[in-house]
User: What shape does this take?
Amino acid sequence: MRILLVEDEADLASSIQTVLQRQGHVVDHCPGGLEGWNLLSAELARYELAIFDWMLPDLSGLELCRRARAAGLGLPLLLLTARSDTADRVEGLDAGADDYLSKPLAMEELLARIRALQRRHPSYREPLLEAGCYCLDYATGQLLVTTASGQVSVELSAKEQQLMGYFLEHPSQIIPGSRLRNQLWDLHQDPVSNVVAAQVRLLRRKLASYDLASPIETVPSKGYRFDPQAGLQP
Ligand code: CA
Assistant: This one.
């Protein structure tokens, strides 16, 4: 992954850089917010993830998040800060950050958060994901379903894309609800216990609204199974 790191503490920046590079990432570092913004906005699709320190000498990390979102950038944003109270956390997330990490940093945690963001972010996947008569286009957020009478294009929400993407990657397998929950939801942010069942229901309803058969079968007390050929059923 190509990562932008905007952090004014030289020692911390250099250790983050070392750790990320060891994981095979390419890291561009700059110490100032303005410089970071220039790098980010110069070529909008260059970075796949950005890490911003909150307190920077010129533009704050918060402002960087706001600007990135205002410019329509969808890459995952991770905010680093010594602030840790809830109001600040909410402010960071409201500004468009995907996650928030308090200093002092534990490098293992930083890596784990980055992996989680990678897993959860649609833009990290292959742009087109296909299984049977289903094809998910991450660029447009549409699911293309080949039916007996032609192709139907279904508009999916971000969460529906993640769920459908997981099914497409695991066709015909029984997937426990707990695994879907662990892979696609942040236990911290989504404490509701039936979140998976609720989302599956929404996805089925969405497909039904396009007159499509549901490809997701509930396997009692085991989980869910995606049938990649269900679109062809009458
Ligand atoms: Ca700082």
Q: What stands out?
A: Residues 8-9, 53, 55-56 surround calcium ion (CB under 6 Å). The CA atoms of residues 148 and 234 lie 7 Å apart. The chain has a mean pLDDT of 88. Residues 195-209 form the longest helix (15 residues).
